[in-house]
Structures are given as structure tokens and as C-alpha cells.
Amino acid sequence: MWEWVWEGIRSGIVTTAYPAREETASGVSPGFPTDLPRTFAAAGEASVAASCCPTEALLSEDQQVVLREPRCIHCYRCLRQTETPLAWQWQGNYEWAVSPHPRVELAKKFGRSFRRSLHLRILDAGACGACLSEIEQLNKPYYNMHRLGFFVTPTPRDADVLVVAGPMTEHMRQPLLSAYEAMPTPKAVLALGACAIFGGVFGTSFASMGGVASLIPVDILVPGCPPPPLAILHALLALIGRVEPAACELNSSSPGGERGD
Ligand code: SF4
Ligand code: SF4
After folding, report:
1. What is the CATH number of domain 103-239?
2. Which atom of ligand 1 is the closest one to the Cα of 52?
3. What is the side-by-side strand order in the sheet with 118-124?
């Protein structure tokens, strides 16, 4: 036992200082391509280039290819599996959470009293397991979300935030609605990962409705497949108004990040 005490004294505090200080550990995230939009000589070329993306994160608009970040799953096909690589630069940060609401509105929902005590009910709507593994890391010493006042609860009756991971499967439709209804107000919904945002790699089918927004209103979305722990922490901090959500074009009626209409 003394060995562990000595090891603790020797190594000091290893918990990340985020959000007080930026996290600088290498490899914190696979990121998104940053050198978009890109303009092609002809609309046809743009359309062919965008077709390499498996989740329609790349959208061709006339001669341009634009990126819809909430749909990106970091597969790198736009770099490695196309004759015309679209992306050479990759964003290395982790503050990805986006919201249909501005920071002031998010902050108003819970008010100051929730800033040091926000309880999360995590619901697996059909996830592959990786998103759940990432959020589990927040309970470990390196991220230690308790220091920021975030706690996991097993019951929706004690929960302030419903964290939904995975595509919205038919089998989990009723359990999700029951959990949401059982939560006291004020309450918020966090869509965790590409699947919860728009169905991700599973899309929509006889067994899946796609994103969780097809059933209940979503307050904040964390893109990624899976999103890294710091991106999830960013979403939780944005929910209580402590940090700004990322700037990203979102259409409130279609939280998959659809543009225009
Ligand atoms: S990394 Fe993959 S999902 Fe993201 S834009 Fe490129 S091809 Fe699409
Ligand atoms: S977003 Fe990716 S990691 Fe998360 S549940 Fe879907 S497939 Fe798995």
C-alpha cells in the first residue's frame, strides 16, 4: 500500500486542468478536416469529391464542397480514399459541442444553483459501446468530472440531463420516453456522438429512427464517433453556461447540421 502512497506523492496531481487551462496532452482528439469549404472548377467535380464521405458530412453546393461537422465520423476517407484529397489539415482541439440555443439561453435553463451539482442519466439507445466508454472516462481520475460538479445517477427521477448515446432504436423508444418524462424540470437532453445526432453509421432503418431529436427536444450535441471525453466535458460546461458552445451552422429543425432550408 505504501508503494501507492509514495507513487501518488511522486507523480503529483495528474488530473487535467481543463477548463481552467487548455489541455495540451498529445492525441486528445482525431479532430475534423479544417481546409473546407473547397472550390472546384465544375459542379460535377465537387459532387464526385463529396461522394467519398460515408455520412454525407461533405456536401456539394454548386462548385463548392462544404463540411457539416456534426456528421463527421473522422474516417479520413476524404484524405486517403479519394483521387482528389479534400483535407490536409485536421483540427486538433476538442471544444466541439454545438447547440441550437445561444449560451445565455442555455445558462438560463439551469441557473446558477446547478453550476456545482448537475446529475446525468446516461441512456444507451443502441450504441456500439465506444461513446459509453468515452463518457465513462469522465469518472476516472484524469478527467474527474466530480471536481466540476457533474455526477452520474442511475435514476431519471434525480437526473437533470439525459445523455443519449447511439442511434434511436425502436426497442429503446419507450424506455427513452419514460426516462424523459420521469425527469424533474428543468431538464436537458445531450445527444452524444454522431449516432445520437443523426443515426451515424447506422442511419435510419426499420429498427432505427436516426437521431434522438426525432423523439425529444435536444439542447446540446457533441459531434464525433466517438467524441473524446474533453468534448463531452465541453458540452456539460456549455449546458450550465460556463463556456461558449462551438460556432457551427445548425438548423434547429434538423440537428444533424443540415444547411439552408
Ligand atoms: S473524415 Fe470521413 S466523415 Fe469526416 S468529412 Fe472526411 S470522409 Fe466525411
Ligand atoms: S457515434 Fe460512433 S462511437 Fe458513438 S455509438 Fe455511434 S458508432 Fe458508436
Report:
1. 3.40.50.12280
2. 7
3. 150-152, 118-124, 161-165, 188-192, 220-222
Rounded Cα–Cα distance for residues 166 and 56 (Å) = 18
Count the neighbouring beta carbons within 10 Å of the beta carbon of residue 95: 21
46 alpha-carbon distance from chain centroid: 28
Band of residue 174 on the pLDDT scale cut at 50, 70, 90: very high
Point out which residues pair with 33 in neighbouring strands: 90
For residue range 71-112, list pLDDT tens digits in order: 999 998 998 877 778 877 888 788 999 999 888 888 899 988
Domain ranges within the chain, ordered by starting residue: 103-239
Around 151, how many Cα atoms within 13 Å sit in the side-chain half-sphere? 13
Grid coordinates in use for 148? 466540476
Record the pTM.
0.90
Peptide bond into 245 cis (omega under 30): no
Q: Residues lining ligand 2, CB < 6 A?
A: 127-128, 130-131, 165-166, 193-195, 200-201, 225-226
